[in-house]
């Protein structure tokens, strides 16, 4: 038996329950993983509330973690017992001391990246990788807009984009978050509580607008984001922390300059193992080079997952947050 955080119904943080669960032996293609660190992400909130429905309840939440392989099932060739590994993506089940997981979703960890850092970077870091290098390939000399620039993905986007030679405009919700974003590569933090971010983007770009907006906020920023784009610009909506975007008349995209709109997911971009490994490899390279610093700014015992969710939803967290099993 092992401890895990499960939900039996959808709702607020109070539905998260610490329970004993039976893990069992790994089946064909599976690994039994003893987890040392578990990443907290906003998609966990979506699963908890039912915004993103899970296949069945009760369910263990969580899509990111790191640990040590305890046992492997028949046919597993990707990893061996004793290997340090990390993962991000489906299937859910990370909020646990021990779990079963398909071996093909695991990425071997370099010796110089520790488990807590890995659990805080895999989902957010590989998200930043596909956003910057595949969804819209940011080039040196471009100016881009990143919403929630002091959040987990935001801090990585700012650093990585600056490393690529881009100028970064980032929205934040406080003076403290503005300083944090600036310290992590954001050239122009914009406090949306005090400034009109659309007007500020237009001012900073000489009225031209930006070629791409990375928006994880959703409802509150979506239409303003469209107004920040130059003609033929790319609107990348990859989250909805403020709520889902209302239905859109696609004619708006024509009116605002023949804009492109995409709603990408990490699971699609890493569905093939070769893409997963390539994404992780590029992420590890920029982290190990120092171009991107991964700061786990909050840790909670796994048993306190409900409080971690409260703090995340209240926007009291910055950077990456990790849950620690067994403490």
TrEMBL record:
Catalysed reaction, written as an equation: 2 a quinone + NADPH + H(+) = 2 a 1,4-benzosemiquinone + NADP(+)
Family matches, as InterPro entries: ADH-like_C (IPR013149), ADH-like_N (IPR013154), ER (IPR020843), GroES-like_sf (IPR011032), NAD(P)-bd_dom_sf (IPR036291), QOR-like (IPR047618), Quin_OxRdtase/zeta-crystal_CS (IPR002364)
Keyword Ligase: no
UniProt-listed PROSITE patterns: QOR_ZETA_CRYSTAL
One Pfam family per UniProt: ADH_N
One GO CC term, this protein: cytosol
Gene Ontology molecular function, alphabetical: mRNA 3'-UTR AU-rich region binding; NADPH binding; quinone reductase (NADPH) activity; zinc ion binding
Taxonomy, superkingdom: Bacteria
UniProt keyword terms in alphabetical order: NADP, Oxidoreductase
Residues annotated as domain Enoyl reductase (ER): 11-323
Record EC number: 1.6.5.5
Family the entry assigns: Belongs to the zinc-containing alcohol dehydrogenase family. Quinone oxidoreductase subfamily.
Protein name: NADPH:quinone reductase
Species: Inmirania thermothiophila
